[in-house]
Amino acid sequence: MTSDIQELAGRYRDILRQAVFLVRSMDAEGELSIGHLSTLNMVAVGPMRVGAIARNAGIKVPSATEQIIKLELAELVERVPDPADARGVLVRLTSKGQDVREAANTRRNGSMARALQTLSGEEVQAIAAALPAIAKLNEALAGGHGTGTQQDQPAQGHNPAPAPQPTKD
Questions:
Q1: Global pTM?
Q2: Given its phi and psi angles, is residue 75 left (phi above 0), alpha (psi -120 to 50 degrees) or beta?
């Protein structure tokens, strides 16, 4: 690995860490925490096991279970039997959860769009052009490349591009 790639990796992680902190604070007054919204966004693609939610969120299963219990009490998600494994359960979005998720994402996307409007046209184009490469990098990280491990795939063939996680420095 070249020193240029190592330097780029460090710079990218620094920018990503800062972005995660800023995105988390964008809607601090909203009804959902970023963790809760992240969970709703994950299960919006399809039902998932708690372990897969925990892995994608970068948290332990007991913490994911606590989040799911809170979301269940608010009637935003529900647990259903896993048809592929009678011993397992899947977490899926309710219609109320879908409505709340869409409203929170719309509000947060509006905040991001207002921030993007402060950039020049060239800067916006540069960000747009970088998105496919960032998505590919996320896929490489989700597949275990560069981490030394191969992560399990979520239930039912669900394989979302995980949200970037803050580094633990």
A1: 0.72
A2: left
Summarize the chain as % helix, strand, coil (round to 5): 60, 10, 30
d(CA 53, CA 154): 8
Closest of 4, 13, 33, 6 to residue 108, by C-alpha: 33
Mean pLDDT (the chain) is: 84
Q: Average pLDDT of 121-134? A: 96
Domains annotated on the chain, with CATH: 3-118 (1.10.10.10)
CB of 94 closer than 8 Å to CB of 75: yes
**20-24 long-range contacts, Cβ below 8 Å, gap at least 24?**
20/164, 20/165, 20/166, 21/166, 23/108, 23/112
Query: Residue 146 and residue 134: Cα distance in Å, rounded?
Result: 15
Q: CA–CA separation, 50 vs 69, rounded Å?
A: 11
Residue 1: exposed, middle, or buried by beta-carbon count in 10 A (0-12, 13-18, 19+)?
A: exposed
Distances, alpha carbon 38 to alpha carbons 57, 58, 89, 162, in Å? 8, 11, 19, 9
Burial 110-126 (b: 16+ CB within 10 A, else e): eeeeeeeeeeeeeeeee
